[in-house]
Amino acid sequence: MATGAGWAPLRSVERHGAPRAGGGTRSKSVAPGPRRPSPSPARSRPAPDNGGSADSCRVRVAVRLRPKNSEELAHGADFDNCVELQPESKRLKLKKNNWNCESYRFDEVFSENASQKRVYEVVAKPVVESVLEGYNGTVMAYGQTGTGKTYTVGRFGKDDPSERGIMVRALEHILSSMSFETDCIAISYLQLYLESVQDLLAPEKTNIPIVEDAKTGEVSLPGAAIVEIKDLEHAFQLLQIGEANRHAANTKMNTESSRSHAILIIHLQRSSRIKGGNCRSLSNDTLDIFPDNLPLVLKSKLLIVDLAGSERIDKSGSEGHMIEEAKFINLSLSSLGKCINALAENSPHIPIRDSKLTRILCDSFGGTARTSLVVTIGPSSRHYSETSSTIMFGQRAMKVVNTIKLKEEVDYEILYKKMEREVDQLTSEMERQQKVIKSEKMQLDKKLKESEKAFHDLRLTSNMQIENLEKEKCHLESAVKNLMQTLEEEKGQRNLLSEQIIELEKLLNENKQQQLENISKTKILADTSKEHEKEMGELLKLLEEERSCSSSMKNRMSVLQQQLCDAQSSAQLQESMAREFEKKLTKVTEEFTSQLQSLRKNISELISEKEVIYEELKSTQEKAQQEMRHRQGLEDQILRMKQSASDNCAEVSKASCGMVRSGSGLGNAAFVSKSGKLREAVSGQRGTISKIFEEVGLPNVLSLLKSEDLDVQIHAVKVVANLAAEDINQERIVEEGGLDALLSLLETSENTTIHRVTAGAVANLAMNGSNQGVIMNKGGARLLANVASKTDDPQTLRMVAGAIANLCGNEKLHLMLKQDGGIKALLGMFRSGHIDVIAQIARGIANFAKCESRVISQGHRKGRSLLIEDGVLTWMVANSTRFSASTRRHIELAFCHLAQNEDNTCDIIASGGIKELLRISRESPREDTRNLAKKALDSNPAFLREVQ
Question: Which residues bind ATP (predicted)?
């Protein structure tokens, strides 16, 4: 069983969302936010639930009616219903008797037949998704004993999954959305019993202290067990252990009445990464040290609170120790009610320290958490006072505004470990390179020695061969000289013989001439000539032998000369190889020395960087503390300024009321003449406008819309627009003819300011679902389209686009909206190029596609999308990656919903939308959008063929 040590906070990086029409971006600030900002009157309107884009978020309240129990069914008419539900208009009527009843409006109204799944999806699912994104959240159940709080929140439903309550469904949702490789989830389960905090997972831990961080205002419970979980089965076991240790008793109101407040705290820690260039919340020095991505951790927590039921002693029948339990329960609930009243009335003092329950929940009401409250009531008129008290508690809670914040922490531990790993890798790499260089040097030294030895042996052998060749050359030269002398002598002899032969031939010729004279001497001469011819043949033969011997000696001499040349070239080659080996050895030695120096330099630089990092961390912490003190001083000044501003506003309101009473009516000249100064004094003060409205009356305000004075007419439209921003005034404005007057101004007026403010008022009225059909039936979409075609003013176009975007959220009006040119007008406003106008266009397209996809999936309509017929698909493919993150998110969501309709398949393929779907499934920052794109690709065979 783990403790809270592993969840110690690091240096935090909090993100605050900025409210924008149709979407928003998030900015960051390093310093932690205040523990409880004072909500101003201008923030009493609930922030839009569009993924946590707004920094202010009203507490969402739903009411759930318990079915009649066996006792109420048995008595029949004795216990008539005092509650009448109107789920369609989200209203509830509380009947005191047959002629007196009161109507209340909530964010959601659940009948006795509402399923556990629907209650979770409406009440808790938006909070859970916000917690998964990094924000704190709270889901709480409040009501009388026996009205079904524990059933709504803590029902296990292990045998029947449809009976599961909010605790189990929230854990199941979180576990299915997290990756356990990088994320971590842990839970704590506590109870507040007799004003003492006890651990339900470790019953031995009692009277756990509540500690508040003086710097951040964050509340913690040191010593409470924090158990890390990996699957739903483990969570079931822990919840069963906690439920077994919780105090419960049997009363007249409930057989298993909870005698303590149960608080389940789910701690989430999710990894996140942001680019160094986008880390605006970090100092420039830190960014210079870490140019790459910083490891970030999103830390958030979800509180699921099952409050014990308020009760009366006479009705519950408590006795003995149970009376003490009831006293402490009612005391803590009373303290909680006082805090809610103070927050709803913007009181300067919030009594959170009156009870441990209010201290634990200080972040849930008026703090930084997104909070949803479900109040449970019974139908019987017997408990009218308790039901009325519960309803009024919910009504006051709806006025509380929280400031949600995203908390990101730079994970310096992971960063330090990463640097240590890099230093170790560099050190091991340096050692490895040193070993490799050393082994290479040894091998090169060995090769060099072998080469030097071979070169020495080769040089000795070459010298010996050269000496032998020189000696042989000398012998050959002497033999050639002798042969030449012999040839000269033989040549002389041959010449001599030739001369002798010539002489003999002469003698022969003479002898032939003398043949006739001396026949007797013929034989002698013949014999002599034969002898001479024989001698001459022998001499010729000897000459040929001498010639062949001379040629063989010349060939041998040429071979010896060639061998001598080869030996000389081999010696030169070996000398050049030796010189190259020496050069290579020198070069390797120099490279090894330079690498060794560079590695030593890198090590020294890393060590110095590590020291600089530690110094920067210390200086950053000191700067954060200074900024926090400075911010606290600024907040005190702001609070004082707000107090003085509220006093001034009250004085102006009194003066304006006096002016209204002194005149004969809003339409007279005296009021109009003084309205200029009055308008300047009360501009931007919605509370003052509401007081004027209550004093003057709506018909008189609407009558000013027809004034001939343009300034009066403009300011009257602004007053109506501010009134239309409140839900409670929207239906009344339409009933009193305010919508008709506004549409008439859109049609007849040529003034740009009138168009802009009137379009804003219509946009506010279009937020009410019951008003949307009236606007369409009176031609509101056609008039808005005409205004969009006539003006280029970006602010006017933004208001018109916002009004059309609100109308796009009603699937019943889609066909009429297309026929009146609303879709073409919405797409045509892209020409302005203004980011706020484009954001509203993307929001309207997303609303239209989402509603159309739901209607088609339910089988109410078939066929090609109406958006495709007006060219919206081509525009989305061409512009899906050009705008801000929030605008791209709306376009991606619209694209995924269009891809769900099989009748749009051919158009999506023809427009190149397959690549866009693939990009969304891989690169979209929102996981639900990626899953929607993957589902569209996997479920459509045509898309799969295109992808393959």
Answer: 143-150
Residue the block writes with tokens 């805090």? 339
652 vs 503, more confident: 503
Determine the Cα–Cα distance for residues 775 and 822; give it in Å rounded to an integer.
13
Question: Do residues 371 and 401 touch, judged by C-beta distance below 8 A?
Answer: no
C-beta neighbour count of 661 within 10 angstroms: 9
Distance CA 726, CA 310 (A): 32
Confirm if 803 and 831 have CB atoms less than 8 A apart.
no
- In angstroms, the CA 457 to CA 792 distance is 97
What tokens appear for 390 in the block? 């519960």
Q: pLDDT value at position 726?
A: 79
Tell me which residue of 900, 879, 896, 897 sits closest to 888, measured CA to CA. 879
**Residues 36, 217 contacting (CB under 8 angstroms):** yes
Residues whose CB falls within 8 Å of the CB of residue 854, separated by 6 or more in sequence, listed in order:
811
431 burial (CB, 10 Å; 0-12 / 13-18 / 19+) is: exposed
Interatomic CA distance for residues 359 and 217, integer angstroms: 11
348 vs 639: CA distance, rounded Å = 9
- Give, in degrees to the nearest 5, the angle at Cα 566 between 564 and 570: 120
Query: Taking Cα atoms as reference points, which of 231, 235, 261 lies closest to residue 246?
Result: 261
Q: Which residues are annotated as a binding site for ATP?
A: 143-150
Residue 705 pLDDT exceeds 70 = yes
Q: What is the pLDDT of residues 179-205, one digit of tens each?
A: 888 889 999 999 999 889 999 999 999
pLDDT tens per residue across span 531-551: 767 777 777 777 777 777 777
| Cβ–Cβ under 8 Å, residues 123 and 302 | no
The binding site comprises: 143-150
Give the mean model confidence (pLDDT) for residues 920-927.
84
Which tokens sit at 501? 């032969």
User: What is the rounded CA–CA span in Å between residue 771 and residue 403?
Assistant: 30
* Helix or strand run (H / E) with residue 543: helix 522-662
3-state helix, strand, coil in the chain (%, to 5): 65, 10, 25
On whether the CB atoms of residues 59 and 44 are closer than 8 A, the answer is no
Give helix 885-899 / helix 835-857 axis angle, nearest 10°. 20
The SS3 assignment for 648 reads helix
Tell me the pLDDT tens digit for each residue of 288-336.
444 456 778 888 999 999 998 876 665 655 555 678 888 888 899 999 9
> Per residue in 761-777, pLDDT tens?
888 888 888 888 888 88
Tokens standing for residue 766: 């279009």
Q: At what angle do helices 769-777 and 780-790 cross, to 10 degrees?
A: 70
DSSP type of residue 120 = I
Burial (0-12, 13-18, 19+ Cβ within 10 Å), 538: exposed
Whole-angstrom distance, CA of residue 426 vs CA of residue 436 = 15
Token digits for 295? 């490891």
Cβ pair 167, 304 in contact under 8 A: yes
Angle separating helix axes 686-696 and 669-682, nearest 10 degrees: 160
Q: Is residue 876 within 8 Å of 827, Cβ to Cβ? A: no
Mean pLDDT of the chain: 77
